[in-house]
Specification:
Oligomer: single chain
Length: 249
Amino acid sequence: MRRLTCSFLGKTCATICLRLDDALTENQRLASIRFYISGSASSSPSLSIWRRKKEMTKEGLIAAKELKRLQSNPMRLERFILSHISRLLKSDLVSVLAEFQRQNQVFLAMKLYDVVRKEIWYRPDMFFYRDMLMMLARNRKVNESRRVWENLKREEVLFDQHTFGDLVRAYLDSGLPSEAMDIYDEMRRSPDPPLSLPFRVILKGLLPYPELREKVKDDFLELFPDMIVYDPPEDLFGDQELTRESESE
């Protein structure tokens, strides 16, 4: 009887220990997941450097000022880039480029664009290319846009649908419909599933271009047959056409 009792108690204790171990393992797993999520949200170690807050140090400010001073002297500018800019910390280089983009300093931004892509830490990044193209669209720089686009295609950078929509709209707003539609065609070939919001952003930007708008509208209705597209009054298209013609003159 005593042996049976001991055997029963031994098996019971073993079962309890196993269950406790399983519970502990599960708790540890959940704790690890919580730590990963909270850690990512707070410190964001995997966040793209092109999305982080950009603050220049004293060295970055000095470098930016000197680049602006030397931009009219190609030889001295190249020497300064080789001797000083390539030695900047990654955070400073990123911050100086972002500041030139904000100031629409296209020439200097393109110089730093080339420097960044040669750095050992450089990795192809959607946000890096998005910011460059948005700046080039604002400043109506077609040749530079094509060059940057060729680079991102070569590096197999993929934009999401919202970024495609923003880029198409930026080129439309700058009066570059041909370049905008080239990007739109890339958007249609993207492996990402289409979203309705980027199409609506594009359709609004296409109001001055009725024929192009009809093409995009047909694509939209084919992809989203249950949705409705608001068409403004016909006279609005005429007003938009007259405005565009007067601006071109």
